[in-house]
Amino acid sequence: MKRHWAFPLLVEEKKLEGANGIVQAVQALSAVAAPILGGILYGIMGVQTVIVFSCCSFFISAVMEIFIKIPFIKREQTEHIIPTIAKDMKEGFAYVIKQKFILKVGVIAVLLNLILSPYFLVGAPIILRVTMQSSDTLYGVGMGLINFATILGALSIGYFAKKMRLKKLYYWILAAALMMIPMVLSLMPFMQGLGYYPAFIVFMLGAIPIAASMTIISIYIITKVQKVTPNELLGKVMAIMMSVAQCVAPLGQILYGMIFEIWSAQVFIPTFVVSALTLLLTVLTKRLLKNEEEPA
């Protein structure tokens, strides 16, 4: 995510969605594959080999980045580094506040990270492991499918971006709110009484498309911001956008942890609340973007 500012300088504008999607997919894949590969290497060769392997990976990455040519205009530095950083941050925040479109989509991104993302990071593991009492295998299958949906969503953004419109973005959030309904039903006592597999399957039927759609929405928003931001402000604006959006995620995780602890015997209640909040976010998104035109 930290290199999103550079993509408009390296990729044609019409290919931005695909580029962002590929990077997001690689990051999601590495988040899944890295612990598995690390565990295998640690079990077979020990911790020293893992450290050497990591050092070599970082070195190869550094060498590869040397050959990335990013257009750059060096600014004349007239002040000390600290005042320069403060000035850059001030300019970035001023631009974001001034540009109503960026401010609007920033609010949407923050609320998504506060409402939906922590649910899957905190709530889904609790539901699968504690509420449904999944075996190690089925827990891995469930979380693996959710992660795979994230990767699939990132890889498919190039296709969906051609059909998506800012004024209709709320449809995607509405779909996520509606897909929460089978998840709520899967956690209710009557569904739990039918046995493990019916509840597990119904829950995953809701969770998988939501995970994919969240990734698609996120990449779509990032790409639109990249297209309307001048190149000289890209680094500042993207840093602010990503920092604010990511900073609210831990708050959501803490909140969901407390909520699921309180409602541990009735987890369908917090899931229903998430669905309702997502529905409210749908209404807010429609109102915020109803007059927005597609960036040229």
TrEMBL record:
UniProt entry keywords in alphabetical sequence = Cell membrane, Membrane, Transmembrane, Transmembrane helix, Transport
Q: Which CDD domains match?
A: MFS_MefA_like
Claim: Manganese is one of the keywords in the record: no
Q: What is its main location?
A: membrane
Record's Pfam families?
MFS_1
Membrane topology summary: Multi-pass membrane protein
Name by which UniProt lists this protein: ABC transporter, permease protein, putative
